[in-house]
Amino acid sequence: MGPAEVASMAREGLITPLLGPVFVTAGVPVTREIRAEGVRMVTSAGVNTTGVLHRDAAAWFHSCAPAPEMLWFMVHRRHRTTMRPSPVGAAIPWCVRQLVYPPQDVDRFHDIQVTTPLRTAADLACWDHPAAETPLRLLLSAPHLAVDPGAVVAVLRNLPRLPGRARGVMRVRRVCRALGLDVPD
After folding, report:
1. What gap in Å lies between CA 79 and CA 99, rounded to an integer?
2. Which residues of 103-132 are buried (b: 16+ CB within 10 A; e: fewer)?
3. Which pLDDT score is estimated for 82?
4. For 37, phi and psi rounded to 5 degrees?
5. The pTM is what?
6. Looking at the record's lineage, which domain of life comes first (predicted)?
7. For residue range 83-107, what is the model confidence (pLDDT) as tens digits?
C-alpha cells in the first residue's frame, strides 16, 4: 500500500497511527501485543533482541504516553553490544544507551523487553526533557499500573549513578502535589 492510500484511509478514519509509519485498524483496541508488533516493524532484530525500551517509549508501551518521536533503548553496560543508532532512513529513529540496571527492572511482553512501570517512572523523573512530565503524571496516576510515588523516590535514592536523581525526586514530589497524591519524603 502506498503513501496516498494510507493517507486516504487515515482521512476516512479507517486506520489510526500507532508508531511512526505503522497504523492499526480504527476501533481495534491497542494492546501490548500490537505495540510490540509495531516496535518490531520499525526496528532491527538486533535492537529487539537485546534492547530494553525505556523513557517515553516505555511509557507509550504501558499506555501512558503518545507514540514517541524516537524510541529509546537501553542495554546493560556489562554486555558487549554492536547495536548502533538507527540508520538514516529508519521509519522512526532510535537511540541505544548503555546503562547499569538490575534484571527486576525489566519486563518482557510478546518478545519485547521494556522497563517496568516503576523503573520507567524513575527514568522519566530524572530525564531533563519536555517529553518526560506528562508520561510521569500518567504513570503515577494510572490505577492499573499501581506505581507508588514513594517507591519511585526509593528507586531514585538507591541508584547512586543515575544522573539527575535529585531533580527526579523533586519532580516526583511536584507531580504528586499537582495530582493530589501523598507527597513522598
Report:
1. 10
2. eebbbeeeebbbbbbbbbbbbbbbbeeebb
3. 60
4. -65, -40
5. 0.91
6. Bacteria
7. 666 777 788 998 888 888 889 999 9
